[in-house]
Write a structure and sequence with these properties.
Among the domains are: 23-147 and 149-183, no CATH class; 220-284, no CATH class; 394-595 and 662-738, Neurolysin, domain 3, CATH 1.10.1370. Helix content is 51%, strand content 6%. The chain has helices at 2-5, 61-87, 95-122, 129-147, 150-160, 168-183, 190-219, 236-242, 260-269, 273-284, 291-314, 320-324, 333-364, 376-388, 398-413, 511-529, 550-556, 562-568, 584-590, 596-613, 620-631, 647-650, 660-676, 685-705, 711-719, 726-733; strands spanning 223-225, 254-256, 396-397, 415-419, 432-438, 444-453, 468-473, 484-491, 508-509. The strands form three sheets. It has a five-stranded mixed sheet. A two-stranded antiparallel ribbon has the order 1-2. It has a two-stranded antiparallel ribbon with strand order 3-9. Helix 2 (61-87) packs antiparallel against helix 3, helix 2 packs parallel to helix 4 and helix 16 (511-529) packs across helix 17. The radius of gyration is 26 Å and the shape is globular. Keywords: Hydrolase, Metal-binding, Metalloprotease, Protease, Zinc. One of its GO terms (biological process) is proteolysis. Belongs to the peptidase M3 family. GO terms for molecular function: metal ion binding; metalloendopeptidase activity.
């Protein structure tokens, strides 16, 4: 369910559907929920296309389903009318008319889909997951028909024969439809399409079976703890989750499970190394203690690898990685490997420095012997807390952070964020709507809703601190609707009775929460600042997978600037630098990245493993044994089966694409380097002018162009050259925390 709510609007392997066999449009029947006569009026629906923003007040599951099913039927009718138009050779056809008609039919459904997704996440008491899934499935089926329609595809192929008449943005829309068609087997014979369908079905079955076995295995592990001392330091929200008796979480006993958020919090805070090892061992073996279960998971993993290879070869590619590269910025896997190899040495060297410092710190604090891999999360947290020397959870008041954040990025990019109370009827009283305008012209560009605070019983929260960016309405050129992005967080500390401890305006954020806020805010700004006239390539849509996180990562990088951290803590009323509640010394320490070599090395390891799994035919265990020693100084346990839990690259969407986050970090860090050259003080007039000049260039490229231009060209327009890993390498090697000489690696 959670995966359905976080899917990006981008090319996905899940689009290999049996629909690729259809020679004609396949109709489907949607039964509309029976509503009162007044409920059929457009203004009672989730979305009124004639208004700027959806109306969330008075919504029921029935109204949501009625709106979505109605727009799904209308889109089906739109496709039918467009088909008849295209089949009539006496009627003219242009790229503009075809895409505009598609947008007219699709936008109401997409906007309603986004509004319902928002309600499911932010007000699950109004729209439960079961009701939302009906809407989600209707929208997915309708969306697949856009890209699997043979008559539409034929028209786009005609447009492709004379691309000289198209703009660069139109050419991107054209490429998207042609590529979607090709990856769904449009170029295959009837027999080939049948084979593709069978292969896709078998692959889907293997992935579902694998996911089920893994989740069942993880659910078997439970370690009961009776001693309260062992639970010392565990965050209250996690303590409540672990307590057997939820009404008395301080009494115990408590149960350690392998739910990711429980496992991660426990292993970071548990001071007993043996108990940490027990939880770690259960996680890396995936609780696959039974030989039959281990064999079943391993078999499914090999079936998935084989199925993806077969799928790729049916479409004319040598392997699944080569097929995956069609939706990436990287030209080919060779270019990806070159980038990963350039980062390997500086990342692993920095990791060695970090582990040496961590070993010394642990030894100075009563740890006996060498730290091992299950000790790292605990001692890393202890070392970070010691380095900061203040409770980082009480440094950033949200009442200052959000207005100062919108003000700064508005000034930087020539935008104006205005808090608009009463402009829209939203889903909760404490949701804030910011109208985004062009600072020079005053033109309204869109809206960003920020739903910041935890609401137990209302918000979906698969784990503490969960957050979402939801593109509720896309930019399009046919109608008056403005782009709308919804940001949903779970900020605020709950006490042991799951009540908010402080008043909402007194809520404090820590660095991790700031990262989540900036990352999601970056996606929202990209969504509303897009200048593309076509929804198919506007904002975050259609950006190649390996470049998709560039803008969100770029926004997070501002936390590396001490002056920016202090700016977030100013009094919003005066914005006076002297009013900041954060001292310069603390800001300097908070801005230092912590153990980035270790983190990057882990990403490089999984990225290389992912590529090897889908380019080589060796058994997955042999591949792991070969490459593990290249990345880590810790011995690989004979029972370690951690790849069995890498659902992202087996049952998920990141097969042959895991490297994408590293690629996006390289681009973001390189882009951010252009701003670092502007100065180190926002208050310096010359520096601020340089910042704004560079910010305008960033807006005119990354933010305005979005997915309407290939990301390579977007980057060249901003930096004047291709991206380079040099900026990220410099960051790795210049961290003063780990400036000690490179020593021997820790013993295993």
């Amino acid at each position: 369910m959670a995966a359905c709510l976080t899917q990006r609007a981008a090319f996905r392997s899940s689009r290999f559907l049996p629909l690729c066999l259809s020679k004609a449009r396949v109709s489907y029947v949607v039964l509309l929920p029976e509503l009162d006569e007044d409920d059929h009026a457009p203004n009672s629906l989730v979305l009124n296309p004639k208004k700027s923003f959806p109306n969330f007040v008075g919504i029921t599951p029935e109204k949501c389903e009625h709106a979505a099913s109605r727009f799904a039927v209308e889109f089906e009718n739109c496709l039918g009318s467009l088909e008849e138009h295209l089949k009539d050779q006496t009627r003219g056809r242009t790229f503009e008319t075809v895409v505009t008609e598609l947008d007219k039919g699709w936008i109401p459904l997409e906007s309603t889909w986004g509004a319902c997704k928002t309600l499911c996440v932010a007000r699950s008491d109004i729209l439960p997951a079961a009701s939302y899934m009906n809407i989600h499935n209707w929208a997915r089926v309708a969306k697949s028909k856009k890209y699997n329609n043979p008559i539409l595809l034929s028209a786009f192929k005609e447009f492709d024969e004379d691309k000289s008449k198209l703009t660069a943005t139109q050419a991107r829309v054209l490429r998207k439809f042609l590529l979607e068609g090709m990856l769904n087997g449009s170029g295959l014979s009837t027999v080939g399409k049948r084979k593709l369908m069978i292969c896709a079905q078998k692959l889907g079955e293997s992935k579902a079976s694998y996911e089920l076995i893994v989740q069942e295995a993880l659910g078997k592990f439970v370690h009961r703890i009776e001693n309260l001392d062992i639970m010392h330091g565990i965050p209250d929200a996690i303590l409540c989750e672990m307590a057997v008796n939820k009404s008395e979480p301080l009494i115990g006993p408590w149960e350690v499970t392998l739910k990711p958020y429980i496992y991660e919090a426990f292993i970071k805070h548990c001071h007993d190394s043996e108990i940490r090892w027990n939880a770690w061992f259960a996680m890396v073996t995936q609780s696959l203690t039974a030989k039959s279960t281990t064999s079943a998971v391993s078999l499914r993993m090999e079936q998935i690898r084989k199925g993806r290879t077969e799928l790729a070869r049916l479409l004319g590619y040598e392997n699944f990685v080569d097929m995956s590269m069609q939706t990436k910025m990287a030209k080919n896997v060779v270019e990806v490997r070159e980038m990963l190899n350039e980062l390997y040495e500086p990342a692993t060297e920095q990791q060695s420095r970090e582990l040496t410092v961590l070993q010394t710190f642990a030894g100075d604090n009563s740890h006996v012997g060498r730290i091992d891999i299950w000790d790292i999360p605990y001692w890393r947290r202890r070392h970070y807390d010691d380095m900061i020397n203040v409770p980082s959870s009480s440094l950033f008041p949200i009442a200052r952070v959000i207005p100062n954040m919108t003000r700064f990025f508005g000034d930087l990019f020539g935008l104006k964020f205005t808090l608009a109370s009463g402009r829209a009827r939203l889903w909760a009283e404490d949701v804030q709507l910011y109208i985004v305008r062009d600072e020079t012209t005053g033109e309204e560009l869109g809206g960003i809703c920020i739903d910041a605070f935890v609401r137990p019983g209302q918000k979906l929260q698969p784990f503490p601190g969960a957050s979402w960016f939801i593109g509720c309405q896309p930019r399009n050129h046919y109608g008056p609707g403005l782009p709308l992005a919804n940001l949903i967080f779970n900020f605020g500390t709950l006490d042991l009775n799951l009540q908010l401890e402080e008043e909402r305006e007194e809520t404090q954020l820590n660095i991790e929460q700031l990262e989540a806020l900036l990352e999601k805010f970056g996606s929202a700004v990209l969504h509303v600042a897009s200048a593309s006239p076509y929804s198919e390539v506007a904002g975050v849509t259609n950006i190649e997978w390996d470049a998709a996180k560039t803008v969100p990562n770029f926004f997070k990088l501002w936390l590396r600037e001490p002056w920016f951290l202090r700016l977030l803590c100013r009094d919003p009323a005066t914005f006076d630098p002297s009013s900041s509640s954060l001292s310069e010394g603390i800001a300097n320490r908070l801005a230092l990245p912590h153990m980035i070599g270790y983190d990057l090395t882990k990403e490089l390891y999984i990225s290389n493993l992912d590529l090897d799994l889908y380019t080589k035919s060796d058994f997955w265990g042999d591949i792991v044994s070969d490459i593990w020693p290249e990345f880590f100084p810790f011995e690989l346990d004979k029972m370690d089966a951690h790849p069995c839990g890498l659902t992202e690259i087996f049952s998920g969407d990141w097969a042959a694409a895991y490297y994408s986050n590293v690629w996006s970090k390289v681009m973001a860090t390189d882009a951010f380097k252009a701003f670092e050259k502007c100065g180190t003080d926002w208050e310096d007039p010359a520096a601020q002018e340089a910042y704004k000049k560079t910010g305008k260039r960033f807006r005119d490229t990354f933010l305005s162009l979005g997915g309407s231009i290939h990301p390579s060209e977007v980057f060249r327009q901003f930096r004047g050259r291709d991206p380079s890993p040099d900026a990220l390498i410099h960051e790795l090697r210049s961290n003063p925390i780990y400036s000690t000489p490179l020593h021997e690696e820790p013993e295993t």
